[in-house]
Backbone:
């Protein structure tokens, strides 16, 4: 008899989930676990909480929704505030587990956690992993090995678009019999239990959404099919105010409530039923960027966390506490930087345009250690993704994948993207 346990991490969905589908297709009885790992709520070497209140709240909502969706499949979900290597062996023993299924990870902390679990579970238990967070699966990209991947995005994109295939999303697993389900009597921890202070949602936020697969599909339905905003995506994506200037899929993608393949599939449906234009393609273009940073971290490993980045460049980086504090508090010489920093502090979200400008200011103009900025973003952002965050910070700091090593002219950027000062007035007006 095959008794399987699915260990959920950043794949909090039931639709198009390779790990869950493979486990369900092969198991007689099924269990699931999600661990709020205390290490993810500790302080980083740069002095910030690794997971701040905004992402933590979104994560809690996502896990709650996952639990509801699994219940509909008669799969019980254990929710623990503990290290996976402490809890998974206990469940293996309790339910005579034969197989533990998980999503493959390759960045240092996640990799170490998987190794710890592998050591802790009995030798009789098989640990089975799948790569399941890509648009282009690693086995399908047109390179002989990961080390051959181009260091220039455009070359990677063109080659993959021409020679790679994108798989169709997987359907939800079949429902298990009622006998498989029982109440685990476990529930999500509160914000306070995670060591954080609750924060009310700011009414001015550009990201007023809840966590979870249900909310993700609600947003997709609205953005694509109800408002047809996808048809203007490229033209509006550099906006700064409101929920509809961009898709806002990033937060659900980052914790796996929504898969890139599912979004791609819906874009293709939209193109066949509504219209196909440069705007619809541009959402796919952005999904490929997201994939690219994952492949870069797969290629370079820990270099993405090093001061010299993947280029091993030596700059005279500084750590001036006053400059760092002023940047965080939004009291720099640029009101455009200040407005963006006030927004992230109040909401846990910032536009892509804003992120590029504040990162360029921090690293290129003030010459501060870019890893401090990346770590602050890790703590604050609802949509933090390890590969995109550190990849983008490297890119904007001159130690990553920008072949032109650009520096943003912040005043001209503000004039171009916030000509009427509505965005700056929104976040800098006296309260």
Residues:
């Amino acid at each position: 008899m095959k008794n399987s346990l699915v260990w959920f991490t950043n794949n909090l969905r039931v639709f198009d989930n390779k790990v869950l589908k493979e486990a369900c297709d092969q198991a007689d009885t099924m269990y699931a676990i999600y661990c709020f790992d205390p290490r993810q709520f500790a302080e980083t070497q740069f002095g910030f909480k690794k997971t701040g209140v905004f992402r933590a709240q979104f994560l809690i909502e996502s896990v709650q929704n996952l639990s509801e969706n699994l219940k509909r499949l008669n799969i019980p979900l254990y929710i623990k505030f503990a290290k996976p290597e402490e809890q998974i062996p206990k469940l293996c023993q309790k339910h005579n587990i034969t197989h533990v299924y998980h999503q493959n990870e390759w960045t240092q902390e996640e990799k170490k956690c998987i190794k710890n679990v592998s050591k802790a579970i009995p030798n009789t238990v098989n640990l089975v992993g799948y790569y399941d967070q890509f648009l282009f699966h690693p086995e399908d990209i047109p390179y002989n090995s990961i080390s051959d991947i181009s260091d220039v995005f455009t070359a990677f994109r063109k080659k993959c678009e021409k020679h790679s295939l994108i798989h169709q999303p997987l359907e939800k697993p079949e429902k298990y019999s009622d006998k498989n389900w029982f109440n685990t009597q476990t529930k999500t921890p509160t914000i306070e239990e995670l060591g954080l202070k609750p924060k009310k949602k700011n009414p001015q936020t550009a990201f007023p959404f809840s966590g979870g697969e249900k909310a993700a599909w609600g947003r997709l339905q609205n953005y694509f099919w109800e408002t047809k905003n996808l048809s203007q995506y490229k033209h509006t994506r550099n906006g700064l105010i409101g929920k509809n200037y961009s898709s806002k899929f990033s937060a659900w993608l980052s914790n796996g409530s929504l898969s890139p393949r599912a979004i791609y599939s819906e874009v293709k449906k939209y193109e066949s039923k509504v219209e196909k234009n440069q705007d619809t393609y541009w959402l796919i273009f952005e999904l490929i960027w997201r994939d690219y940073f994952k492949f870069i971290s797969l290629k370079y490993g820990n270099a993405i966390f090093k001061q010299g980045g993947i280029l091993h460049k030596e700059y005279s980086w500084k750590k001036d506490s006053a400059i760092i504090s002023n940047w965080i508090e939004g009291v720099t010489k640029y009101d455009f930087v200040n407005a963006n920093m006030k927004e992230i502090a109040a909401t846990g979200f910032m536009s892509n345009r804003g992120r590029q400008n504040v990162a360029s200011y921090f690293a290129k103009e003030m010459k501060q250690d870019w890893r401090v900025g990346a770590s602050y973003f890790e703590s604050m952002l609802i949509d933090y993704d390890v590969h995109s965050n550190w990849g983008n910070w490297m890119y904007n700091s001159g130690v990553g994948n920008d072949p032109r090593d650009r520096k943003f002219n912040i005043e001209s950027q503000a004039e171009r993207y916030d000509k009427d000062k509505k965005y700056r007035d929104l976040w800098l007006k006296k309260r």
